[in-house]
Structure formats: structure tokens, C-alpha cells
Design a protein that fits this description.
This protein is mostly helical. The protein has a domain at about 50-155: Arc Repressor Mutant, subunit A (Orthogonal Bundle). Helices cover about 70% and strands about 10% of the residues. The longest helix is centred in the last third of the chain and has 23 residues, at about 110-135. About 15% of the residues are buried.
């Protein structure tokens, strides 16, 4: 109910303040609020947010290059390389040279990493559903489709 009052308050004003209608701010604010709720669960499970992002990304992929993983997890490549080294030492991921180009390391999740991530993946899905419940199935799907399209349009620039 609190969320509905906040939305009504923003939409009832005649002309919103600049940031209240500025897309980059709205995206960042929504991400901060929604992600922050779940990041508390990630940290309670003993992971950092970057570790969680790596495990979640690799959970349903056979492997991924460091460059692609850096892009998907929103992490700078040198920072990610150090993180992958630590995660490999902990047995959460495995790193190997690529078949076509030995300079491009491939990273995959290990059975231990998958087991450690399983509960968090379930919690993430439940959290997402809870967030989208306020919108209904159609509007929730439209929101995600719109965001995917926005990402695709700006990834190629």
C-alpha cells in the first residue's frame, strides 16, 4: 500500500521536478531500491554482490569469457579478473584457456559454486516475483521487455 501512495504522489503533481521525470535517474533509483533489498540476502549468505553476479551469470551458461562476464556483471575487467582468481581458489568457479584463443580465459561455475548459489537463485526469483506482483503479469513482462530493448539499443552504441 505504501508503494501505491508513493506512486500516486509522484503522478498527482502538475509538473514533476526534473529528476523525477529523468529516465537515467529513475532507472538508477529503481535499481538501487530493488537491488538493495536483495543484496542484503546475498550478503547474509556470505557473498559479495560481485560474487553473486558472477555465480548468477554462470549458473545457466556452460562458460563465459572474462570480457563478457565483466560486461554482464557490471564489473571492470581488472577487478573481475582478481575476483575470479579468488573465487577459483575457493572452488566456486573454474578458469581455463579458450579453445580458439588461449588469451581469452573461459570461466564456468563448479558444482560447489552451483550448490552454494542454488538457494540464492531461488530467493532472487522469489524477490523478483514480489517486486513484479504490484504490476501484474502483463505489465511486469512489458517492463522487462522494455528494459531489455533499452539495453540492446544502448549496448551497440
Amino acid at each position: 500500500m505504501q508503494a501505491h501512495k508513493a506512486i500516486a504522489a509522484m503522478t498527482d503533481s502538475p509538473k514533476p521536478a526534473f529528476v523525477d521525470g529523468y529516465l537515467p535517474y529513475l532507472l538508477a533509483r529503481a535499481s538501487y531500491l530493488v537491488s538493495g533489498e536483495f543484496h542484503r540476502q546475498v550478503e547474509a549468505a556470505g557473498f559479495s554482490v560481485p560474487e553473486w553476479r558472477v555465480l548468477a551469470t554462470l549458473a545457466d551458461r556452460p562458460d563465459c569469457t572474462i570480457g563478457a562476464l565483466a560486461d554482464i556483471t557490471l564489473t571492470k575487467q581488472p577487478t573481475l579478473t582478481k575476483l575470479i582468481d579468488r573465487m577459483a581458489a575457493s572452488g566456486l568457479v573454474a578458469r581455463r584457456n579458450g579453445a580458439d584463443d588461449r588469451r581469452h580465459a573461459l570461466v564456468s561455475i563448479t558444482p560447489r559454486g552451483r550448490a552454494r548459489a542454488r538457494a540464492l537463485l531461488e530467493q532472487a526469483a522469489a524477490h523478483e516475483q514480489q517486486v513484479l506482483d504490484d504490476f501484474g503479469p502483463l505489465q511486469g513482462d512489458q517492463l522487462k521487455d522494455t528494459l531489455r530493448r533499452l539495453i540492446a539499443l544502448h549496448t551497440s552504441r
